Amino acid sequence: MEDLRSFARRMSALPLDALRSGLIGNGAVFDGPFGPRRLLYADWIASGRALTQVEDFVRESVLPFYANSHSEASHCGRASTRLREAARAEIGRITGCGGDTHVIFAGSGATAGINRVVGLLDIAGRTAAGQRTTVLIGPYEHHSNILPWRESGAEVVELPELPGGGVDLAALDAALDAADADLVVGAFSACSNVTGILTDVDAVTRRLKAHGALAVWDYAGGGAYLPIEMGPPGPAAKDAVVLSPHKFPGGPGASGVLLARDTVVRRRTPTAPGGGTVTFVSPWDHDYADDVARREEGGTPNVIGDIRAALAFLVKEAVGVETIHARDAALRARAVAVLTGHPRVELFGADATAPALPFLSFRIGDGQGGHIHHQLVTRLLSDRWGIQARGGCACAGPYGHRLLGIDSAGSGALRERIAAGDELAKPGWVRLSLNYLHDDDEAERILTAICSLADRGTELARPYTADPATARFSADPVCARGDGDTVAARGLPVEPPRGQGLTTTNGESGRA
After folding, report:
1. Angle CA(261)–CA(263)–CA(265) in degrees, nearest 5?
2. Would you say residue 501 lies in a domain?
3. What is the per-residue pLDDT across 408-454, written as a single tens digit (0 to 9) for each?
4. How far is CA 48 from CA 245, 270, 328, 366, 388, in A?
5. pLDDT tens digit string along 293-323?
6. Domain-located, residue 57
7. Helices within 139-237 (DSSP H only)
8. Engineering a disulfide at 14: which of 18, 286, 288, 326 sits with its beta carbon 3.0 to 4.6 angstroms away?
9. CA gyration radius, the chain
10. How far apart are CA 196 and CA 198, in angstroms?
């Protein structure tokens, strides 16, 4: 039975190509309306991909001795409990958690973590007691970092984005000066899950702390790529971080993680009472545990998911954030250069001067002043090239309104159409990402496919019909059969020539 430290050492010795080779499903073939296609996954912002190295560890070192935790009286109970606590310790070590910070496994992603923070701050109780809470949020927040605050009873203030990307720090200073609530919280995404634009985490945190505000950070989109450091208390110390390790390479099935400093724990009762949160229960009374993590992890834990979260963190640590950063920068630069060079591709965030991850959200023009529906473009990428992307607004509705130029009147009209069942009316874009585990040829294949689709999108759309109630597009079987068995038969490249495009960085096939 291998332990987590041994797994970490083994991962650190692997070249990046070995991790690429371990991606489960990479290059798998599936049948589509135009014949078989080789799968190329580019939906990394939504979820990561399973790694053979992680699955082997789970199969060989976790599952044979799996049992529910909260017991050490049996071998399996003890093995699962200790491995789960070792997973918690590894995540805490990697993220620089000290004795005042709790690693809490929360649900399946960052959404549960944000809701847990809202509960730990006891905003509803504060509001009922007549106390005011103001929450400052960034310009490109996910719905998960908007709706829980709105529903809490707090005043929510959205800050603007700078023209070149990032939070407007002058507006943040003004909002902090104007806030006169009993509790002020800043809740920001470390990066946009739409454009990949990065927030200056330390600069924002320092301003929040200087005004006595709490700093809550959403690393759902950026956690797989960015350094995460809780650190000791100080002028740039984060109060809470929420994470979605299922988005990491090797992360599918992993639990969500909340890193919570004592500063956000404003209650002695659990946010979700249940089994395991107590030290004593009688017919007349009960006592909750002093340990915050135990108190906040009621019920049967997702033991395997909790361990998977640590394994995904260990894979990231083994690759190294410097290697990831260098690869991401090269991928981003190449993508922006290629896509902005095509007259029918509208890439959101392409003109950003702020640093950004290689998250690509775009629309494709139809040559007549409009755009090919984003869900159809997503379907075409899959049916024609095997590329897996995602269409929609990326759960970033307010940001989407600004990106697409939708004013209040237009928003109201859209809302009425959607409420009437017209799902096709939902605005949005196609979103995909280039990942550091994509090799040069895969990245070029993705970019070439987008440009080829933009060249011939109107023609390629002809076999498709849409269901307005679901916004799902499907190819007419007769048209599809008459269109040729393969993409290559239509003269559209399945892949670019080998060896062209991105320049390989020093860290690509080994450790930097």
Report:
1. 85
2. no
3. 999 999 999 999 999 999 999 999 999 999 999 999 999 999 999 99
4. 8, 31, 16, 32, 12
5. 999 999 999 999 999 999 999 999 999 999 9
6. no
7. 147-151, 169-178, 201-210
8. 18
9. 24
10. 6
Return the residue matching tokens 């009437």.
420
The residue count of the chain comes to 512
Distance CA 155, CA 158 (A): 10
Residue with tokens 């049967």: 300
From residue 311, how far is each of 5, 11, 88, 409, 429 by CA, in Å? Answer: 10, 10, 11, 48, 33
What is the rounded (10 degree) CA torsion for 133, 103, 24, 374?
A: 0
- Beta carbons of 193 and 221 less than 8 angstroms apart: yes
In terms of domains, do 429 and 468 share one? yes
pLDDT in tens, 2-35: 999 999 999 999 999 999 999 999 999 999 999 9
Residue 228 and residue 95 in contact, taking contact as beta carbons nearer than 8 Å: yes
Whether residue 377 sits in one domain with residue 304: no
Tokens of 189: 């995404």
Closest to 122 in 3D by CA, of 133, 111, 112: 133
304, 324: one domain: no
Whether 108 and 220 share a structural domain? yes
Q: Is residue 430 located within the same domain as residue 384?
A: yes
> Which amino acid is residue 359, in one-letter code?
F
Q: CA of 55: how far to CAs of 28, 62, 78, 294, 307, in Å?
A: 18, 10, 21, 27, 11
Containing 417, the helix (H) or strand (E) segment is: helix 408-419
Question: If you average pLDDT over every residue of the chain, what do you get?
Answer: 92
Residue 8 domain-assigned? no
Q: What are phi and psi of 152, to 5 degrees?
A: -75, -15
* pTM of the shown model: 0.92
> In this structure, are 222 and 233 located in the same domain?
yes
Contact 74, 227 (CB under 8 A): no
Tokens (6 digits) for 262: 């004592």
Q: Are residues 136 and 241 in the same domain?
A: yes
- What tokens does 285 get? 């009374």
Between the alpha carbon of residue 354 and those of residues 142, 322, 366, the distances in Å are 19, 18, 30
The token pair that represents 353 in the structure block = 């001067």
Among the listed residues 473, 419, 377, the one whose alpha carbon sits nearest the alpha carbon of residue 42: 377
The angle that helices 4-12 and 303-319 make with each other, rounded to 10 degrees, is 30
Q: Into how many domains does the chain fold?
A: 2
What CATH number is given to the structural domain containing 267? 3.40.640.10
- The pLDDT of residue 405 is above 90: yes
Determine the structural domain holding residue 454 and report its residue range. 17-49+320-490
Flag whether 198 is in a domain: yes
